[in-house]
């Protein structure tokens, strides 16, 4: 049975942790590898370099939306392709365990499960509720 008193706080905790993880990964690409370096890495994988910039923006915007709780159920689903891309281009061939050379797909897959769980659970406590105008 779901505890309706604590479930919103569980969703909040999940939403915040997922958002912070995306911010951390975007920060790694922006501040450590640099945007140009990340674009070069994407190109080395056979992907267009410009996709790195889209990915970094996607991660930052998605992270902020999750943290603030702006359409978190939708945002959780929209963030899954970023992780699927990481699995299929970088981590998938490295095996399952993330401590394998080049990191396996264990962590990104678990991250996807967290996003799916958030989408199923709901917005959670303290989510920003965009107002809709009333129709006359």
Write up what this structure looks like:
With 136 residues, the chain is mostly helical. The chain has one domain. The protein has 5 helices and no strands. Helix 1 runs antiparallel to helix 3, helix 1 (7-32) packs across helix 5 (106-121) and helix 4 packs antiparallel against helix 5. The longest helix has 26 residues, at 7-32. The mean pLDDT is 93.
Highlighted features:
136 residues; mainly alpha; 5 helices
User: Largest sheet at a glance?
Assistant: none
How far is the first residue's CA from the last residue's CA? 41 Å
The low-pLDDT segments are none
Overall mean pLDDT = 93
Secondary structure class reads mainly alpha
Number of strands: 0
Helical residue percent? 55-70%
Question: How many structural units, i.e. domains?
Answer: 1
Tally of helical runs: 5
Our Rg estimate from Cα atoms comes to 17 Å
Strand content bin: under 5%
Output the helix-strand order: HHHHH
Instruction: Tell me the overall shape.
Output: globular
Q: What layout of secondary structure does this protein have?
A:
Layout: H1 7-32, H2 35-44, H3 50-68, H4 72-91, H5 106-121
Can I get a quick summary?
With about 140 residues, the chain is mainly alpha-helical. It is built from five helices and no strands.
